[in-house]
Design goal:
Layout: H1 3-8, E1 12-18, E2 21-27, E3 30-34, E4 59-61, H2 67-86, E5 91-93, H3 97-102, H4 109-119, E6 120-121, E7 126-127, H5 137-152, E8 174-178, E9 199-204, E10 224-230, H6 237-253, E11 260-265, E12 269-276, E13 279-282, E14 286-287, H7 292-302, E15 316-318, E16 324-331, E17 337-350, E18 360-366, E19 374-382, H8 391-400, E20 410-415, E21 417-418, E22 421-422, H9 425-428, H10 436-439, E23 443-451, E24 455-456, H11 463-484, E25 486-487, E26 496-498, E27 508-510, E28 517-518, H12 524-527, H13 539-542, H14 553-570, E29 571-573, E30 576-577, H15 594-603, H16 619-641, H17 652-676
Parallel strand pairs: 5-13, 10-11
Antiparallel strand pairs: 1-2, 1-4, 2-3, 6-7, 8-9, 9-10, 11-12, 12-13, 12-14, 15-16, 16-17, 17-18, 18-19, 19-23, 20-23, 21-22, 24-26, 25-28, 26-27, 29-30
Length: 679
């Protein structure tokens, strides 16, 4: 068994001894340390390498974990593997990170001096009470916990540590480092971290909008500031992956986090990590014994009361009454702006992954307006290709062109700013002269406010509601393309909403314009192929046998068709899915099968081989069959009648008219069917 296998399969509190090596496992991981006399010789110490691995050892069990600990450990390992895969190629070392973020020590001079007077031996140039033989994981963790909390005691007058707390006052900022390698620290914590770190810097205050008004810090991702991993020995790759999992957990629970700092501590060295929506950057390790001022500065900044400096978005906060509020910057004239506050009612969507857009959508009410509901959408939009226009800009353009039905009613949009600067990945990382490689990482934090609508298309309550919403979404797509000159490029179930009380033309709402472009756009971004939701992507975009193709309205109409088919294959009735996804829908998430399955489906002469659920009757399958025949003509026959390089040109107005006519015919047939066979 390899050393990594040994670490991953160790559970409970166990110790392993083999050939001079001691492995101490603390419930969630195993840590190695060479147990020889030479370890105590400072001259033999070196900066840890991330690629070095520990030595395998035989096991000697001391204690067994409980069943709940085993389940949680298993779930944590699954989550850890997902985050590690997500972070592939997303790690970048910044040799100047310490200088960029921690060079200014003026705000902390008094606190550094006080901390050193109590805890640092200037004669030996080492921190006091440091374990004589730092080979035991728990003793090293406890030493770090005590020291870090002592440093934080003097970080700010308003942030006392546990031993100097007065009576709790509402939303008062506090900071505390917990020893989360101990399971007993987590017994009364909700929600639990998915992956337990060695130590956990947590806080309380108005910046923790999802902590349910907790007056004291707790080691939970709702109150997390910085995860801290402690390791004995040279292997650090597994520990940095655990930091990434904890950071991802914090991003998931804290919708107002822009970035998260984290620490990796060994017996001698400290490495600072910074996680954001582009991945992670990290510093060179520094010796915290030899540079106590820098170490204190790092700890003070990570526990700072200046929330923008530690990765919070100050425009999302709890007000004095504990209400979750969002402050938006809205135009009040040609060149003037005003702040508009909204109160969050609920979170209606959040991105399931950490690296990427990090989209959050909230249902909100404008302060002072108890009747109207709005949606605020925050996202980090990539800037890797020129030509990208913001969702807010395109929505406003569509509204200005007269397209108002079937799309969100635009209220305002902005690029979020932190002080005078835009909130971007590169500026947050303090990269002033980025290389081309770094430019590909950059993302801009954007916010759009629009009128709230209803539920997603797969939450239909009847066949008629489904098909009316489907028709109006296609009609909106036609109006965007033909009137406003905008191509959506991301047709999916979640991007079509049902407005049960909408007028004709707005019973279905087409949302999410993050991938949209102008029809006449020739920019690199507009030419980017394979944009959209993979499951509903068109044949041309999935094809790997030809050069990438620029998307057109035909690709989106094909995606509309796949959305309808998916629903009629997967849903046996409103709100109830099949226990097993039937073919060919089951193949649409498989990279090796999706193209072949869709090609075979479109080329078939009839639908008999791919039957829909009985609930949808005869009229809707008949309509889908007619749409399939239309798409065959649009995609296959039209291309075959032209040359390979010059297929017959598209005819958008005629194609849209025919597509919509078939849907209208389906609506009429459904009404007749329901009249003849009432429920």
């Amino acid at each position: 068994m390899s050393s990594e296998e040994s670490e991953e399969n160790t559970t409970g509190n166990t110790a392993e001894v083999s050939d001079g090596y001691l492995i101490v496992a603390s419930g969630h991981k195993a840590l190695t340390r060479r147990a020889t006399n030479s370890d105590n010789n400072d001259t033999d110490r070196k900066v840890p390498s991330e690629d070095e691995q520990s030595i395998p050892a035989r096991k000697r069990r001391i204690a067994s974990p409980t069943e709940s600990e085993l389940v949680r450990a298993e779930e944590g390992e699954v989550y850890l593997r997902e985050v590690v895969q997500e972070m592939n190629q997303a790690w970048k070392q910044d040799k100047d990170l310490l200088e960029k973020f921690f060079s200014s020590r003026t705000p902390f001079q008094e606190r550094i001096r006080n901390a050193k007077e109590r805890n640092y031996n200037s004669r030996t140039k080492r921190w006091s009470r440091y374990p004589v033989f730092p080979t035991e994981f728990s003793s090293l963790c406890n030493w770090f916990r005590v020291l870090l909390n002592d440093i934080l005691l003097f970080e700010a007058d308003g942030i006392p540590s546990r031993r100097e707390r007065g009576p709790p006052s509402q939303l008062k900022q506090r900071r505390y480092v917990f020893a989360t390698y101990k399971e007993d620290y987590l017994k009364e914590v909700t929600p639990l971290p998915r992956v337990s770190s060695s130590l956990y810097l947590a806080g309380s205050g108005p910046e923790f909008v999802t902590a349910n008004g907790k007056l004291r810090p707790q080691p939970s991702p709702t109150a997390g500031l910085s995860p801290i991993e402690v390791t004995i020995g040279d292997g650090t790759r597994k520990q940095r992956n655990r930091l990434a999992a904890n950071a991802a957990d914090i991003f998931e629970w804290q919708s107002n986090r822009r970035f998260v700092f984290a620490l990796l501590l060994t017996e001698e060295y400290c490495t600072v990590y910074m996680f954001d929506r582009a991945g992670a950057t990290y510093s060179k390790p520094f010796n915290f014994h030899e540079d106590p001022d820098l170490f204190c500065t790092v700890i003070c900044l990570l526990g700072s009361s200046k929330v923008n400096d530690i990765g919070f978005d100050g425009s999302i906060f709890l007000d004095r009454t504990g209400l979750h509020q969002i402050r938006c910057r809205q135009a009040a004239g040609r060149r003037s702006f005003r702040n508009q506050h909204y109160t969050v009612q609920s979170t209606i969507f959040q991105s399931p992954v950490y690296v990427g857009r990090g989209t959050f959508c909230w249902l909100v009410r404008r302060v002072g307006d108890k009747k109207s509901l709005y949606v605020i959408k925050d996202a980090w939009i990539a800037q890797d290709l020129p030509g990208k226009e913001s969702e807010g800009f395109l929505l406003k353009l569509a509204n200005d062109k007269g397209v108002t039905l079937g799309i969100p009613l635009f209220q305002s949009s902005e690029d979020i700013r932190q002080g005078d600067d835009p909130d971007t990945i590169l500026l947050n990382r303090k990269i002033s002269n980025p290389s081309r490689e770094y430019l590909k990482l950059d993302r801009v934090h954007t916010r759009v406010v629009m009128k709230a609508y209803g539920k997603t298309l797969d939450q239909f309550s009847s066949r008629k509601e489904l098909i009316l919403a489907f028709h109006d979404a296609v009609l909106a797509h036609r109006n965007l393309h033909q009137i406003a000159g905008i191509l959506h490029r991301d047709i999916s179930i979640r991007n079509i909403l049902i407005d049960s009380h909408g007028v004709e033309g707005s019973r279905g709402i087409l949302i999410d314009f993050d991938n949209a472009v102008r029809v006449v756009d020739e920019s690199l971004y507009a030419k980017k192929s394979r944009v959209g939701t993979y499951r509903f992507m068109s044949l041309n975009l999935l094809s790997k046998d030809s050069a990438p193709k620029q998307q057109t309205y035909i690709n989106d109409l094909e995606s509309f068709y796949y959305v309808l088919c998916w629903i009629m294959w997967v849903y046996v009735e409103p709100g109830k899915k099949t226990s097993v996804t039937p073919y060919p829908a089951s193949a649409w998430d498989e990279d090796m099968m999706v193209y072949t399955a869709k090609w075979a489906h479109l080329k078939r002469l009839t639908f008999e081989a791919d039957p829909f659920q009985p609930y949808f009757g005869a009229s809707l399958p008949a309509m889908a069959e007619r749409l399939r025949i239309l798409l065959r003509r649009f995609i296959i026959l039209r291309a075959s009648k032209g040359s390979e390089d010059s297929p017959l040109p598209p005819e958008p107005e005629q194609d849209y008219s025919e597509f919509l006519a078939e849907i209208k015919k389906g609506i009429s047939e459904l009404e007749l069917e329901e009249a003849e066979h009432p429920a």
